Amino acid sequence: MALLQPGSGVALRQTVRMRLRPTMQSDIDFVLTLERDPVNLPFITPWERTQHEAAIRFPDFRHFIVEGGAGLDAVGFLILIGCRSPHHSLELKRMVVQPKGQGFGRAAIRVAKKIAFDDLGAHRLWLDVKSLNTRAQKLYESEGFTVEGRLRDAVRVADGYDALVVMSMLASEFSQRRQQGLEVFA
After folding, report:
1. Are 40 and 96 in contact (CB under 8 A)?
2. Which position among 24, 81, 103, 146 has the lowest Cβ density within 10 Å, counted as fewest Cβ atoms?
3. Half-sphere exposure of 101 (CA within 13 A, CB side)
């Protein structure tokens, strides 16, 4: 469980109960429902069922269900790609959490960073986010990700095209954040 103040990135005594568990075949309908929800759809490019099924089985991927709240109910999912990369560069391919604003996304990012750097030995963790998704960009920045660049008109959206903002964190930056007490876990 991560200890944090929702929305601030500052460690506090308030606990957000959250964990990641490997996605199972029986979770795919939940994942597809989240991806196709009108609240989430503008911010992601949904996958087909077969893509999620392959991600569950393929060793280079880690597909997780985000469980949160008092009953640890399913509140989202998260996908890491490149887990066997010889370059030790992992991608946070997708994270969708619902309901929003309760700290589950921040807690999930913290656990994902811990898995990437501590468990999988990543040197670099990177992601891209649509430029219109300013909420996610602020979260990633507050969690130590650095903007590397912008891919102009990289994805098609309902009213034209949107840019992708590429962000990353290095293992040394994660270690420094940990020493500063910014990577807090219960």
Report:
1. yes
2. 24
3. 0
Q: What domains does the chain contain, in order, with CATH numbers? A: 2-179 (3.40.630.30)
- In sequence order, which residues have a C-beta less than 8 Å from that of residue 100 and are 6 or more positions away? 39, 135
| Distance from C-alpha of 96 to C-alpha of 69, rounded to nearest angstrom | 16
Residue of 111, 114, 127, 138 lying closest to 168 (CA atoms): 127
Condensed to tens digits (0 to 9), the pLDDT of residues 71-107 reads 999 999 999 999 999 999 999 999 999 999 999 999 9
Contacts of 39 (CB under 8 A, 6+ apart): 98, 100
* Interacting residues of 124 by C-beta distance below 8 A, sequence separation 6+: 87, 88, 89, 90, 168, 169, 170, 171
For 108, residues 6+ apart whose C-beta sits below 8 A from its C-beta are 18, 20, 66, 76, 78, 95, 97
CA 117, chain centre distance (Å): 14
Q: What is the pTM of this model?
A: 0.89
Q: How far apart are CA 163 and CA 165, in angstroms?
A: 6
